[in-house]
Amino acid sequence: MLFTTLKTPEELEDVSDLEEDHEVRSHTSVQTEGKTDRAKMTQLPEAEKEKIAEQVADFKKVKSKLDAEIEIWDDTSNDIIVLAKKMCMIMMEMTDFTRGKGPLKHTTDVIYAAKMISESGSRMDALARQIANQCPDPSCKQDLLAYLEQIKFYSHQLKICSQVKAEIQNLGGELIMSALDSVTSLIQAAKNLMNAVVQTVKMSYIASTKIIRIQSPTGPRHPVVMWRMKAPAKKPLIKREKPEETYAAVRRGSAKKKIHPVQVMSEFRGRQVY
């Protein structure tokens, strides 16, 4: 039986992502044998790696916006938030692949990941479209439908760009690995899609607040999703001190300066009495 130790995120960044002997599985990974396309990404010229890193940094800025938008909502009764989180996670795996990291090993894994994103986008479209159809505000409805069209467009674009692959090129008689164009297109498509998801989540909430809850012949109309704020993390009423801190406090309190009786008497006799 093979046992593996759990690694911290930092260790995964530095070590396990590039090991060929250890299989890193993901819900989007469908191929694991042979030399990986992910490993080839580490053989790109340093100039290409720097440009890819810049693209990924821009992508992460958009991801931070999505995180800020969805982390305030309880996702137990809100499938729009669930789908947004899922799409974000898969897109992060795709961008990690372009840096030779993460669970996706082959181009086929990236293609499959893009397919999963497209499916999640279709499900989000179905939910948000119901909200748009119930929204009485024409302007709000139009904006939401426009963002849904963006999700559909950029999901399709991401599927096209998912054929990312490092290829050997002959530049000036020297054979080098190159993948800059395909990688840049993939990250840009992911960034655009992430932006569209951010705006869709925002506008879905706004549209939901404008829907009038009316009684219909078949009964009350139920909301498509529930927008509940996430409960704040519970904090202890009393701060528990660490044992070593308590011990140190006791030691400090119990340590008193000892003064010799002869010194006390000499100081007393030296005082002037008025």
UniProtKB/TrEMBL annotation:
Main subcellular localization, coarse class?
other
**A Gene Ontology BP annotation from the UniProt entry:** cell-cell adhesion
Could you say which residues form the signal peptide?
Answer: none
Among Gene3D superfamilies, the record links this protein to:
Alpha-catenin/vinculin-like (1.20.120.230)
Single Gene Ontology MF annotation = actin filament binding
- SUPFAM superfamilies cross-referenced by the UniProt entry: alpha-catenin/vinculin-like
GO cellular component entries: adherens junction; cytoskeleton; fascia adherens
Region annotation (Disordered) ranges: 1-41
> Bias regions of kind Acidic residues — which residues?
11-21
Keyword Coiled coil present in the record's keywords: the answer is no
Where's it found, cell-wise? Cell junction; Cytoplasm, Cytoskeleton
Q: What keywords tag this UniProt record?
A: Cell adhesion, Cell junction, Cytoplasm, Cytoskeleton
Q: Could you say which protein family the record assigns here?
A: Belongs to the vinculin/alpha-catenin family.
Q: What is this protein called?
A: Catenin alpha-3
Q: Which organism is it from?
A: Bos mutus (wild yak)
